[in-house]
Design goal:
Strand content: 15-25%
Family: Belongs to the DEAD box helicase family. DEAH subfamily.
Organism: Periplaneta americana
InterPro entries: DEAD-box_helicase_OB_fold, DEAD/DEAH_box_helicase_dom, DNA/RNA_helicase_DEAH_CS, HA2_WH, Helicase-assoc_dom, Helicase_ATP-bd, Helicase_C-like, P-loop_NTPase
Distance between the termini: 65 Å
Radius of gyration: 30 Å
Enzyme class: hydrolase
Protein name: RNA helicase
Bound molecules: cytidine-5'-diphosphate, magnesium ion
Length: 899
C-alpha cells in the first residue's frame, strides 16, 4: 500500500522496486508522446519536461534512505496536454520560471510558504505543478482552499481549462454546491468546506497536498486550518503517508505563519515569486475627499477623457455605492445617445453630473450588451465588426481641469512620462470613447461577475467599479488606472454583545498598496488615491485586523470542541482571538445548552453536551443547529429546514428596488409598496403573524421553490423584492440541510416539497417556541409607558425594547412585519446598528415559555399565594402565577409553569 502512495513511490531507488520502475518508464513514455502531439515550438520553451525527468533520477539516487521517507519525490510524471495559446500565456507568468525551485522545496519540506504578488500565477499554476509531479495520481487529491466562493469557482474553471481537463477532474466544492466527483484530482473549495471535512476525517487521508490560498486574507477558517494542519502534517508524516502543506499568500505579514513556534517548530521555508509588476505611479489627492463616490466619479471621468487607453478599476466600499457609480458613469459615457451626448459632457464640464437630464441622454445598456455579444461572436468568426459607436457623441471635455489638477500630486511621486503627455493632450481634443462600465461585488450574480474577465466591446474602455473583492483574489485583465477611495466596509461586532454594524473605515496601508498594484499588471500604471498622503501616513494601519479577532467565535468554538480540541485557548492560531471573545462565545453556547457550564472561573475545558454534538453536525450557526435539532416533532422539520436556510443567508428581502444597475428608479416607490403588501400577505394571521419576519421568509422560500421549478425564479424574485442570488443560495442550502437531516434521521425520509403548505396555526406556534429555543439570549421586552421617565420624550421610546443581555434599548425596525403589532415579548435574530440599534428577524413569544425554553436567564421568585392556582383547560393542569425577571429585562412577567 505504501508503494501506491505517490509521495512514497519516488523514494524507492530504482533497484528496490521493479514495479515502480515500470511506472517511471511509463511516465516518461507519455511525456515523449505528449511532446510529439503538441506544437513542438511551444513545448521546447517549456522547462517542464526537463525538470521532471531530471528531478526523478537525481533525487532518488542522492538522498539518504531515512530522510527520503519524508522528502518524497513522486516518480510519476503526469503529462498534461495544453493548448498552444494557453501554454504560451503560462510561459509569460513569472512563477513558471520558479517551478523547479518550488517543487524541490515542496518535495523536501512538509510545509512551504509561497509568497508572491497577485497575478504572479500562484493559484492557477501551483496545482498544475503538483499534478504533473504526480501528487494527484493513485487516487490522491490535491486540495486548494479559497476564502471566497467566487475564487473557488472561477479558479477551478480556469485550471480545468488550462489543463484541458473535465470539470469532473478539476472541480470545486463550496458550501451549497460543487461539481466534485470520485474522479476529481484537483479540488478547489472554500476554507469552511475543508474544515468540515477535517471533522469527519481528521487526517485528511484522501489528500496528498493541501494548498491554503490567500492566507494573507486571514479569514477565520484559513487561520484555524493553519493551526489544525500544523498538527495534522506531522501526524501524517509519522504514519509514513506524508501530507504536504503549502501556504500561499501575497507578500504580507508572513511572520505570523513563519516565526510562530507554537505553530511550526521549525520555521517553514519562504519562497518568494518575483512578479512581473510594472511601476505604478501613485497620485495622492491634495485634499481628502469626504464624498468619495462623487470624487471617484469625477476622477474616472477625467482619466477617461484625458488619458490614453487602458482599463480603469475603481475601489469603493459596498454594493450600493458601486451600483450608484456604475449608473452615473454609464449615463455620462453611453453607448448610444440620441442627442449625441453633448449634454452629458456639458454637465460634466460644469462639474455637476447629477443634475443632468436623464430624458435627453438615452441609456441603452441592454442593447449595448447585445451588440457587444454580437460583435464578440462575429469576431470569433472571420469578420470583424465594430459595435455601433457614435464617435461624435462626445466632443466637450471638462475645461476647468488642468492636468495638474487631474494628477493631483501633493508629494511629487512622479508624473506621466512626456510621450504619454503628448498623447494625453491629443486625446484631450479627440472625441471620447464609450465606456464599458461593470460592477463587481460579492453579492453580484456569478454570471455578471464573470463579465469583468471578458474583453470590452471593441472601441470602448473597460471600467470596473468594485469593492475590495478585486483587491487580491481576482485579477482583472488590462487595468492601467486604479482609483482608490481608500475605504472599505467591514462588519464590526461588539466583542461582548455580538451586535454588528457595517462601518466604513480606512483600509490598511497593505490593502491600499495591493489596490495600487492592480494597475501595474500590463505595463506602467497609475493609481489615483482620493485621499492625501498625510492621511495615508497618519491614519492608515499597517495591516488589517485578522477576521478571527473581529468576529464572534461561537461557531468556531463549538466546532473545535466537537473535534475534541478542549482547550481552545491553547490552540496554535496564527493570531489568537482574545479571551473576552472566547468567553462570551462560550457563555452563549452554554446558554444554548451546547456546552457544559465551566467548572471554575479560569476553566477552559468545558465539554460539548449531547445536544451540542447534534448541533455541530449541521453546517449552520449553532443557534440554527439547535432549532433543527429540536424540530423532530409535529412535522415541523420541513419548516425549520426552510426557515434556517433562509435565516442563514444575508439580505434576502430587498429594501428598495435596486436589483441591478440597469434598473431605472422610476417605479421604485410603487414597486416598493407592492412588495410591502406581499410581505404582509405572506405574514398571515394569528400564530403565523406572530412568527413574524421568519414567517415571511418561510413563505417567500416556499413560493420561490414553486416558481423555480417552473423556470420563473428570476421574474418571481424581481416581482417580489427578493434578492435572486440569496434565494438561489437558500434553495441549495435547503436541499443540503434536508439531506443532512436524512443522514441523521434516516427514517424520516424528508424531501423538499415544492408545494409545501404554510404551517398550521399549531405548527406556527411551535415554530415560535423553536425560535425562542434557538435564541434564548436574544429576548426583548417592550418598554412600557410607565417605565419612561416623566421628563423624557415619549416619541423617542416608540418601538423601543429592553434586551435580556444588553443595557441599551433596541428598536423594532420599520421593515419588520411585527412593527404595527408591537408584541410585548419578542426574540430577534440579530441587532444591527445604524442610526439606532435595530432588531432584525423578529418573532413574538409568550412569557410563559421562558422558563421552559430559556431557563438560564430566568430569575423566578417563589410562587405567589395570590392569585390562587387555577385550572388550565388547554393542558388540564393546575397552574400558578409566578413572577420573575428575565436577564436585564427589568420587568416582571407572569407565567404558568407546571406544578
Ligand atoms: O494566484 P495569483 O494571484 O498569483 O495569480 P493567478 O490567479 O494564478 O493568475 C495568474 C494569471 O492568470 C493572471 O495574469 C490572470 O490574469 C490570469 N487568469 C486569467 O486570465 N483568467 C482567469 N480566470 C484566472 C487567471
Ligand atoms: Mg491567487
Amino acid at each position: 500500500a505504501e508503494a501506491k502512495d505517490p509521495n512514497v513511490v519516488g523514494l524507492e531507488t530504482s533497484s528496490e522496486s521493479s514495479s515502480d520502475e515500470d511506472e517511471e518508464e511509463d511516465g516518461e513514455d507519455e511525456v515523449t508522446s505528449a511532446v510529439e502531439e503538441e506544437d513542438t515550438d511551444t513545448v521546447s520553451k517549456n522547462p517542464k519536461v526537463e525538470v521532471a525527468t531530471e528531478a526523478v533520477s537525481d533525487e532518488a539516487v542522492n538522498k539518504p534512505r531515512k530522510e527520503r521517507h519524508v522528502a518524497s519525490k513522486p516518480a510519476v510524471f503526469v503529462p498534461v496536454h495544453r493548448q498552444a495559446d494557453i501554454q504560451e500565456a503560462r510561459l509569460r507568468l513569472p512563477i513558471l520560471a520558479e517551478e523547479q525551485v518550488i517543487m524541490e522545496a515542496i518535495n523536501e519540506n512538509p510545509v512551504v510558504v509561497l509568497a508572491g504578488e497577485t497575478g504572479s500565477g500562484k493559484t492557477t499554476q501551483v496545482p498544475q505543478f503538483l499534478y504533473e509531479a504526480g501528487y494527484a495520481s493513485d487516487g490522491k487529491l490535491i486540495g486548494v482552499t479559497e476564502p471566497r466562493r467566487v475564487a473557488a469557482i472561477s479558479m477551478s474553471k480556469r485550471v480545468a481549462e488550462e489543463m484541458n481537463l473535465d470539470s469532473n477532474e478539476v472541480s470545486y466544492l463550496i458550501r451549497f454546491e460543487g461539481n466534485a466527483t470520485e474522479k476529481t484530482r484537483i479540488k478547489f473549495m472554500t476554507d469552511g468546506v475543508l474544515l468540515k471535512e477535517i471533522q469527519s476525517d481528521f487526517l485528511l487521508s484522501k489528500y496528498s497536498v493541501i494548498i491554503l490560498d490567500e492566507a494573507h486574507e486571514r479569514s477565520v477558517y484559513t487561520d484555524i486550518l493553519i493551526g489544525l494542519l500544523s498538527r495534522i502534517v506531522p501526524l501524517r508524516n509519522k504514519r509514513g503517508n506524508p501530507l504536504k502543506l503549502i501556504i500561499m499568500s501575497a507578500t504580507l505579514r508572513l511572520e505570523d505563519f513563519t516565526d510562530n513556534p507554537r505553530l511550526f517548530k521549525t520555521s517553514p521555508p519562504v519562497l518568494k515569486v518575483e512578479s512581473r509588476q510594472f511601476p505604478v505611479t501613485i497620485h495622492f489627492n491634495k485634499r481628502t475627499a469626504v464624498d468619495y463616490v462623487a470624487e471617484a466619479f469625477s476622477k474616472t471621468c477625467k482619466i477617461h477623457t484625458q488619458l490614453p487607453e487602458g482599463g480603469i478599476l475603481v475601489f469603493l466600499t459596498g454594493q450600493q455605492e458601486v451600483n450608484c457609480l456604475v449608473r452615473k458613469l454609464r449615463r455620462a459615457f453611453p453607448f448610444h445617445s440620441k442627442k449625441k451626448g453633448t449634454k452629458a459632457a456639458q454637465t460634466l464640464a460644469n462639474g455637476d453630473a447629477e443634475s443632468e437630464d436623464e430624458g435627453e441622454v438615452e441609456l441603452d445598456m441592454q442593447k449595448a450588451i447585445h451588440n457587444a455579444r454580437k460583435a464578440r461572436r462575429k469576431r470569433q468568426g472571420s469578420e470583424v465588426v465594430l459595435p455601433e459607436i457614435n464617435l461624435d457623441s462626445y466632443s466637450v471635455v471638462p475645461g476647468d481641469d488642468t492636468e495638474a489638477d487631474l494628477l493631483g500630486n501633493d508629494d511629487d511621486l512622479g508624473d506621466i512620462e512626456s510621450d504619454e503627455e503628448d498623447q494625453l493632450n491629443l486625446r484631450g481634443l479627440a472625441a471620447c470613447q464609450p465606456m464599458w462600465v461593470l460592477p463587481l461585488y460579492s453579492l453580484l450574480p456569478s454570471d455578471k461577475q464573470a463579465q469583468v474577465f471578458e474583453p470590452p466591446p471593441e472601441g470602448s474602455r473597460l471600467c470596473v467599479v468594485a469593492t475590495n473583492v478585486a483587491e487580491t483574489s481576482l485579477t482583472i485583465p488590462n487595468v492601467k488606472y486604479v482609483v482608490d477611495s481608500g475605504r472599505m466596509k467591514t462588519r464590526m461586532y461588539d466583542k461582548v454583545t455580538g451586535v454588528s454594524a457595517f462601518t466604513v473605515t480606512w483600509c490598511s496601508k497593505a490593502a491600499a498598496n495591493q489596490r495600487a498594484g492592480r494597475a501595474g499588471r500590463m505595463g506602467p500604471g497609475h493609481c489615483y488615491r482620493l485621499y492625501s498622503s498625510a492621511v495615508f501616513n497618519d491614519q492608515f494601519e499597517q495591516f488589517s485586523v485578522p477576521e478571527i479577532q473581529r468576529k464572534p467565535v461561537d461557531d468556531l468554538l463549538l466546532q473545535m470542541k466537537a473535534m475534541d480540541i478542549d482547550k481552545v485557548v491553547n490552540f496554535p492560531f496564527p493570531s489568537a482571538p482574545d479571551l473576552i471573545q472566547l468567553r462570551s462565545a462560550e457563555r452563549r453556547l452554554v446558554l444554548l445548552g451546547a456546552l457544559e457550564e465551566p467548572k471554575k472561573k479560569d476553566d477552559w475545558t468545558s465539554k460539548v453536551t449531547p445536544l451540542g454534538y447534534a448541533i455541530s453536525a449541521f453546517p449552520v450557526a449553532p443557534r440554527f443547529g439547535k432549532m433543527l435539532a429540536l424540530s423532530h416533532q409535529q412535522g415541523l422539520l420541513p419548516y425549520t429546514v426552510c426557515m434556517v436556510a433562509a435565516l442563514s443567508v444575508q439580505e434576502v428581502l430587498l429594501e428598495v428596488p435596486i436589483h441591478g444597475v440597469e434598473e431605472e428608479a422610476e417605479n421604485a416607490g410603487q414597486k416598493r409598496a407592492q412588495w410591502i403588501q406581499t410581505r404582509r400577505k405572506w405574514a398571515g394571521m394569528g400564530n403565523s403573524l406572530l412568527l413574524g419576519d421568519p414567517m415571511v421568509l418561510l413563505r417567500a422560500v416556499g413560493a420561490s421553490e414553486f416558481a423555480g421549478r417552473r423556470g420563473q425564479l428570476l421574474q418571481f424574485c424581481m416581482d417580489n423584492g427578493l434578492r435572486h442570488k440569496a434565494i438561489t443560495e437558500i434553495r441549495k442550502l435547503r436541499v443540503q440541510l434536508t439531506n443532512e437531516v436524512n443522514l441523521n434521521l434516516p427514517d424520516l425520509n424528508l424531501c423538499v416539497d415544492p408545494n409545501m403548505a404554510p404551517p398550521t396555526d399549531i405548527q406556527a406556534k411551535l415554530l415560535r417556541q423553536i425560535m425562542l429555543a434557538g435564541m434564548p439570549d436574544q429576548v426583548a421586552h417592550k418598554v412600557a409607558d410607565n417605565e419612561i421617565k416623566e421628563d423624557e420624550d415619549k416619541a423617542k421610546w416608540k418601538h423601543a425594547y429592553r434586551c435580556a443581555e444588553m443595557e441599551d434599548p433596541v428598536f423594532m425596525h420599520s421593515a419588520s412585519v411585527l412593527r404595527k403589532k408591537s408584541p410585548e415579548w419578542v426574540v430577534y435574530q440579530e441587532v444591527f446598528e445604524t442610526s439606532k440599534l435595530y432588531m432584525r428577524g423578529v418573532t413574538a413569544i409568550e412569557p410563559e415559555w421562558l422558563p421552559t425554553y430559556a431557563p438560564a436567564l430566568c430569575n423566578l421568585s417563589p410562587p405567589l399565594v395570590e392569585p390562587p392556582p387555577r385550572y388550565d383547560e388547554a393542558t388540564g393542569k393546575m397552574l400558578c402565577h409566578v413572577t420573575g425577571t428575565f436577564g436585564m429585562c427589568y420587568c416582571v412577567f407572569i407565567c404558568f409553569p407546571r406544578i
